[in-house]
Amino acid sequence: MSKIGIMGGTFNPVHTAHLILAETAYEQLGLDKILFMPSKKPPHKMHESIVSDEHRIQMVQLAIQDNPHFVLSYAELNREGVTYTADTLEELSSQNPKDAYYFIMGGDSLFQLETWWKPNKILSLSRVAVAVRGYETIEGYKDQIAYLSKKYNTDIQLLATPNLDISSRDLREKRKQGKSIRYYVPETVYNYIVDNHLYQGD
Ligand SMILES: Nc1ncnc2c1ncn2[C@@H]1O[C@H](COP(=O)(O)OP(=O)(O)OP(=O)(O)O)[C@@H](O)[C@H]1O
Ligand SMILES: O=C(O)c1ccc[n+]([C@@H]2O[C@H](COP(=O)([O-])O)[C@@H](O)[C@H]2O)c1
């Protein structure tokens, strides 16, 4: 049996907080590997402008290539239409029934989790590991963790990450304003964004 972390995201673009979050989960939960799983068409971002799958794949690949326990997963990119986490977990666990899945997320996702498709299935097929985001505090998460843990009879893990106030949205905005995003993303990803003129206009 392997313990597999899933770092799902739009990764538009992937940034340093995603990588720190995944590495912390790997270490703290004693995982065997982390799947970086770009979403195809996230249901809650249907109207957002997202760079092509190819660009997001390239950026994730560049970001994780030096880490032997980080793996790019095409599980959602290979599916047609809207991709739901519950369906992805069902597919993964039927392919590898002996593996245990840990779905890694930031606090914004934790507070939205009940609005996702079939939260019950998500929480029965995986354990959630959550990191405090930006200026939020652990205190603000405790009630939500206790509520979800009790309701869905699960054990939600809190990850000991530093609070990193980095978001893809802010990085896209900085680029639009001509500001630097150097060091918010790995150097390879920074060069890719600059070389491909990504996030410069509308
Ligand atoms: N700074 C952060 N701290 C903790 N978790 C984060 C952080 N940034 C992203 N995450 C988590 O990583 C996962 C994937 O995030 P996503 O790709 O949407 O990045 P994002 O920065 O939230 O993007 P956007 O600003 O476009 O919404 C989500 O579960 C999100 O909560
Ligand atoms: O399945 C759902 O209903 C659902 C709704 C919102 C988000 N998700 C997943 O949550 C992960 C983080 O999403 P995002 O948009 O914050 O990058 C990513 O894997 C999404 O597919 C899933």
From TrEMBL:
Its EC number is 2.7.7.18. This is Probable nicotinate-nucleotide adenylyltransferase. Keywords: ATP-binding, NAD, Nucleotide-binding, Nucleotidyltransferase, Pyridine nucleotide biosynthesis, Transferase. SUPFAM superfamilies: Nucleotidylyl transferase. GO terms for molecular function: ATP binding; nicotinate-nucleotide adenylyltransferase activity. Pfam families: CTP_transf_like. GO terms for biological process: NAD+ biosynthetic process. It comes from the Bacteria. The keyword Nucleotide-binding applies. It catalyses: nicotinate beta-D-ribonucleotide + ATP + H(+) = deamido-NAD(+) + diphosphate. Belongs to the NadD family. InterPro entries: Cyt_trans-like, NadD/NMNAT, Rossmann-like_a/b/a_fold. Catalyzes the reversible adenylation of nicotinate mononucleotide (NaMN) to nicotinic acid adenine dinucleotide (NaAD). Pathway: Cofactor biosynthesis; NAD(+) biosynthesis; deamido-NAD(+) from nicotinate D-ribonucleotide: step 1/1. The keyword ATP-binding applies.
